[in-house]
Amino acid sequence: MKQKIIDPWGSGLLEDYGKIIKDFGLEIFNSKLFPEPNRIMRRGVVFAGRDLKIILDAIKSKKRYYVLSGIMPSNDKIHLGTKMVVEGIKYFQEHGAETYILIADLEAASTRGVTLGEARKRALDFHIPAYVALGLDVGKTIFYFQSENKEVMNNAYEFAKKITLNEFKAIYGSADPGKIMAAMAQVADILYPQFKERMPGIIPVGVDQDPHIRLTRDIVRRVKDRKFLLPSSLYHKYTPSLDGDIKMSKSKPESCIELPEDIKSVKKKIRNALSGGRDTLEEHRKLGAAVEKDMVFELMKQHLVEDDAELNKIYNDYKSGKMTSGELKEIACGKMEGFMNNFVKGIGQARKHIDRLNFVKFK
Amino acid sequence: MKQKIIDPWGSGLLEDYGKIIKDFGLEIFNSKLFPEPNRIMRRGVVFAGRDLKIILDAIKSKKRYYVLSGIMPSNDKIHLGTKMVVEGIKYFQEHGAETYILIADLEAASTRGVTLGEARKRALDFHIPAYVALGLDVGKTIFYFQSENKEVMNNAYEFAKKITLNEFKAIYGSADPGKIMAAMAQVADILYPQFKERMPGIIPVGVDQDPHIRLTRDIVRRVKDRKFLLPSSLYHKYTPSLDGDIKMSKSKPESCIELPEDIKSVKKKIRNALSGGRDTLEEHRKLGAAVEKDMVFELMKQHLVEDDAELNKIYNDYKSGKMTSGELKEIACGKMEGFMNNFVKGIGQARKHIDRLNFVKFK
Questions:
Q1: How near does any CA of chain B get to the CA of A82, in Å?
Q2: Overall CATH class of domain B10-241
Q3: Which residues of chain A make contact with B164, given a CB cutoff of 8 A?
């Protein structure tokens, strides 16, 4: 039973992630090795990484290392995948990492056509406050805007010489000028904390962001005259779409929860989500729920229930048929309402203190 | 006879340039329209342009306009084509243009792998002094390094969204990440003087640099929210290789004169150059020289003889057979020695005053 709680997401999807691990050459993530693993680490949502040992060593021996992530301010919502990234940052921040958050305004410009002014406004009004509301300790976080960071831009140009168009396409599947420029800036961002001093760094990402990690690692291997350490990375699974698809996506709004989103709308979506409940109550009581197919349980596991014992009880009650799908959904709705209220309130409070952020001052 | 002096370069090559004018959609350059046309304008070396009328109007009505060019500090020599670009800049500088010279250190990094530090050193030690030695008035010239110009870099990212990879390839023939990033920076450079105020600008280039002009003009047409004027451009022909090929190139060092170059080496190359002289003296006196095939005469026309009457006399003497190929070459050697001595001396003097340059101060 314990085994199943660790990853009750369904064997089909598990196989997909197994394939990703194999195809991308990732390491399987073992939460037992890390001190105080967080919720998504303990539950197999964080499932893989690259070069994790050097990070583990840095944590245990209290050596300098960094965690870095980027905010892409292309609109005024974030999704649950972003929440998992922030939880990853928070974990390493609490375990000694120097924390860097960059605002990818150049990427927003070159890939989405968002002006730098608009990107800046969105980042300050929403994205940074949202990260704070999700648990980032701003007092310990260094922020910068790509567009203000000459070193990042200059290095992006130097790194561009190290890769061919075909190599780029092999990594990203496609290429266009805006995407190439954004990717080169990302490489420079990922290495930015090492510009002054070589040190380990970890980048928590959704698995679809791995191309940036691979490109960066390829370039580090080719920049012979500067001794960067290969950046490490940590991968979380997607939060599945409420209709059961592998990834929640705005292209199917009825199966996608945005942050923030009106709670009435969210509750309606949760109530309509793909369920593991049986067709009749009688059958449900007899067979119990097919939990591995239940998207609401997955949502609770990934995002809504912090306590393992509580989640375990819900799992057992639902699996045994004691708890109905309707009851499970109402628990989820209640927890989601609490989360969303706190999130919105947290954003409001963080906005008031936006002037206290540690932005890198550039000459 | 006068007609032939205007362009005695040979009908074969003329046809090539006619094709370029047609294929690229250029305007034929008419030196008679411009006040005090310079040597290369008068002699048909400047042969085409884009949107020249707006520049002519600005000159005549003393309106604000700019001339802009870039220095690519990838090595410690320049070629005769660069000399012609500087002469183009000088012409417009003397006719009221605000003058911008950018150091394309990001391009040197992303396309040649030259570090920014090395690029800066070469620009200050050699390229800028060389431009001054060739006649640039530094007191009236605004300089900047691409790598210091955040506005240029930021705009390069915004502009990248406006073009697809296939469009880029159609303009440049090929694409790779370094080339794409360099090209986007060039577009931003070309428009930089218009960031604060819309105004006409002219970019004097060798015809092989036209892709940058086309890309910039395509992007200006797509940037609807910012009202840039389409930049104008001016094209000079190549200085032909001393063996008669259309373009002097370092890939054939025996037929290529670099600036600076040891005068003994240059004289040897001139003496070995493709000549329009006849096989025997008797034949030469009888038939006269085939001037249109003579690379040394072309060199004198493009670079070494300022005075039209003097060039005309040389042309007539040579064409009639009165002057031998050997005599022509010795005149060229003497003039080249004078030019090279002045050039080297000019560089030395300009280096002493490098601190007086007007570099844009960036925050």
A1: 24
A2: alpha beta
A3: 176-177
Whether pTM exceeds 0.80: yes
| pLDDT tens string A258-300 | 999 999 999 999 999 999 999 999 999 999 999 999 999 999 9
Task: Specify the long-range contacts of residues A2-5, CB closer than 8 Å, at least 24 apart.
Answer: A2/A312, A4/A291, A4/A292, A4/A315, A5/A43, A5/A308, A5/A311, A5/A312, A5/A315
ipTM of predicted assembly, 2 dp: 0.89
Contacting residues of B for A160, CB less than 8 Å apart = 110, 177-178, 180-181
In chain A, the residue whose alpha carbon lies closest to the alpha carbon of B363 is: A363
Q: Which of A106, A161, A164 sits opposite B109 (nearest CB)?
A: A161
B71 — phi, psi (to 5°)?
A: -105, 125
Superfamily the domain B253-345 falls into: Tyrosyl-Transfer RNA Synthetase (1.10.240.10)
Asked whether the beta carbons of residue B157 and residue A147 sit closer than 8 angstroms, the reply is: yes
> What is the number of CB-based contacts under 8 A between chain A and chain B?
97
Q: Is the pLDDT of residue A245 over 70?
A: yes
* Nearest Cα residue in chain A from B174: A165
Nearest residue on chain B to A184, alpha-carbon basis: B177
Q: What is the pLDDT of residue B294?
A: 96
Q: How many CA atoms lie within 13 A of A78 on its CB side?
A: 26
Q: List the single residue in B147, B161, B182 with the smallest CB-CB distance to A154.
A: B147
A160/B177 touch (CB, cutoff 8 Å), yes or no: yes
Instruction: Give percent of chain B with pLDDT exceeding 90.
Output: 86
Checking if the pLDDT of A74 tops 90, the result is: no
Chain B residue numbers with beta carbons less than 8 Å from the beta carbon of A112 are 161
Q: How distant is the Cα of B137 from the closest Cα of chain A, in angstroms?
A: 29
What is the least distance, in Å, from the CA of A71 to any CA of chain B? 17
Which residues does chain A have within 8 Å of residue B177's beta carbon, measured at their own beta carbons? Answer: 160-161, 163-165, 168, 180, 184
Of A113, A158, A178, the CB nearest to B109: A158
What mean pLDDT, rounded, does chain B reach?
93
Question: Quick one: pLDDT band at residue B362, thresholds 50, 70, 90?
Answer: confident
Domain locations in chain B? 10-241, 253-345
Q: Do B109 and A164 touch (CB under 8 A)?
A: no
> Do the Cβ atoms of B177 and A156 come within 8 Å?
no
pLDDT for residue B5 is more than 50: no
Q: Which residue of B has its CA nearest to A111?
A: B161
A154-184 pLDDT, tens per residue?
999 999 999 999 999 999 999 999 999 999 9
Query: pLDDT (tens digit, 9 = 90+) per residue, B293-320?
Result: 999 999 999 999 999 999 999 999 999 9
Which pair of structure tokens corresponds to residue A197?
A: 């001093």
CA of B354 vs chain A CAs: smallest distance (Å): 23
Q: Which CATH superfamily is domain A33-239 in?
A: HUPs (3.40.50.620)
3-class SS letters over chain A: CHHHHHCCCCHHHHHHHHHHHHHHCCEECCHHHCCCCCHHHHCCCEEEEECHHHHHHHHHCCCCCEEEEEECCCCCCEEHHHHHHHHHHHHHHHCCCEEEEEECHHHHHHHHCCCHHHHHHHHHHHHHHHHHHCCCCHHHEEEEEHHHCHHHHHHHHHHHCCCCHHHHHHHHCCCCHHHHHHHHHHHHHHHHHHCCCCCCEEEEEEHHHHHHHHHHHHHHHHCCCCCCCCCEEEEECCCCCCCCCCCCCCCCHHHCCEECCCHHHHHHHHHCCCCCCCCCHHHHHHHCCCHHHCHHHHHHHHHHCCCHHHHHHHHHHHHHCCCCHHHHHHHHHHHHHHHHHHHHHHHHHHHHCHHHCEECCCC
**In this complex, which of B110, B161, B175 lies closest to A110 when CB atoms are compared?**
B161
